Amino acid sequence: METVPLLKQLSEATGPSGREEPVRALIQSLWQPLVDELRTDALGNLIALRRGDGSEPRPAVLLAAHMDEVGLLVTGIERGFLQVAAIGGADRRVLPGLEVIVHGRRDLPGVVGSRPPHVLREADRKQVLPWEKLFVDVGLPHEELCQLVQVGDIVSLCRPLVELKGGLVAGKALDDRASVAALTLMLETLQRRPHAWDCYAVATVQEEVGLKGAITAAYGVAPQLAVALDVTFARQADDSGLGTFELGKGPALGVGPNFHPAVVKRLRQSAETQEIPLLTDPAPGASGTDAWGIQVAREGIPTGLLSIPVRYMHQPVEVLAPRDVERTGRLLAAFVAGLEPEYRPRWEDEPA
After folding, report:
1. For residue 201, what are the domain limits?
2. SS in 3 state form for the chain?
3. Number of structural domains, the chain?
4. Is residue 64 domain-shared with residue 187, that is, in the same domain?
5. pTM for the whole structure
6. Over 70: is that where the pLDDT of 301 sits?
7. pLDDT for 351
8. Both 252 and 281 in a single domain?
9. Which pLDDT score is estimated for 239?
10. 342 lies in some domain
């Protein structure tokens, strides 16, 4: 499976938090030939199972990446224009001038507009526009608009994935469709590699609004260990300090109280055996990822985190290196294949 076309499919699919149906249908079509079972739970998580070849009862490993993206919600209709608010961490600094899709009774193309800068007061020109001064224009008169759109409808960003120089790509929703792509590549690789444990790949919902999918999926699957996948901050022109990572240097491994030291150690070992470069991402508190919800499901699940560096997070031009996605998928496949039937993460294991 070629990585850039896969990223393009996933990036351009629609799926703001709470309305992930279109991207879920796409992922289902990609995963169907790669797994033994596929189901959608009550919250909307897509849960795929590749059965292990160990004797029953087999232990299970859960690998989770969220498929939802930031978006907008219609909060009002005024004189033929839509007022909107953020779903998740949508960055209103970059919204004016963007193309969007309004998901009403039928999908409507639209643009985000505001008053031109030369008719604003000088003080207002220097401020980020508040939500009440942004609007979505689909080009319809008020009466017709009200027949097709209502308060509560979803608005998604519309942006094609583009290939940049230097082996990079830019697009929307690579947080966290890049990790979904890595899961897909892992499932493809596992077709050629035996693994003793049952392997659950989960595309979770509603991460951007509170990790809800990860919490419920982890409770339902009840695995013996888990690895969450997300993105982290890549170095860019105005941000190259601690906590940022070079593109193309591999995924980042989370270390800190959110992550079980035995799982961290096994992920490091898998990277070493595959000669995959691995960065270290310290998180002294909440990681803000699905790992935070998975770790405390049921009586607790030993959890790790791999993150793919991305520039311009939560903007419609997120930039990453596809080779980091490929390395993450290969690392995950080696990790799953290396889990011996009798292995269980223990606090007595040596520190990572």
Report:
1. 3-69+172-337
2. CCHHHHHHHHHHCCCECCCCHHHHHHHHHHHHHHCCEEEECCCCCEEEEECCCCCCCCCEEEEEEECCECEEEEEEEECCEEEEEEECCCCHHHCCCCEEEEECCCEEEEEEECCCHHHCCHHHHCCCCCHHHCEEECCCCHHHHHHHCCCCCEEEECCCCEECHHHCEEECCHHHHHHHHHHHHHHHHHCCCCCCCEEEEEEECCCCCCCHHHHHHHHHHCCCEEEEEEEEEECECCECCCCCECCCCCCEEEECCCCCHHHHHHHHHHHHHCCCCCEEEECCCCCCCHHHHHCCCCCCCCEEEEEEEEECCCCCCEEECHHHHHHHHHHHHHHHHCCCCCCCCCCCCCCC
3. 2
4. yes
5. 0.95
6. yes
7. 58
8. yes
9. 77
10. no
- The CATH number linked to 80 is 2.40.30.40
Q: For residues 260 and 59, what is the distance between their CA atoms, to the nearest angstrom?
A: 17
Residues contacting 193, CB < 8 A, separation 6+? 333, 337
Task: Give catalytic residue positions.
Answer: 207
Widest Cα–Cα separation across the chain: 72
Place of tokens 């709470």: 18
Whether residue 328 sits in one domain with residue 189: yes
Summary mean pLDDT of the chain: 95
Confidence of residue 36 (pLDDT cuts 50, 70, 90): very high
Report the alpha-carbon distance of residue 350 to residue 352 in Å, rounded.
6
The share of the chain scoring above pLDDT 70, in percent, equals 99
Which residues pair with residue 73 across a beta bridge?
85, 154
What span, in angstroms and rounded, lies between the C-alpha atoms of 54 and 56? 7
Q: Using one digit for the tens of pLDDT, what is the confidence trace for 246-299?
A: 999 999 999 999 999 999 999 999 999 999 999 999 999 889 999 999 999 999
Task: Tally the residues of the chain.
Answer: 352
pLDDT band at 350 (very low <50, low <70, confident <90, very high): low
**What gap in Å lies between CA 175 and CA 322, rounded to an integer?**
13
The pLDDT value given to residue 242: 76
Amino acid making up residue 127: Q
**333 burial class (0-12, 13-18, 19+ CB within 10 angstroms)?**
buried
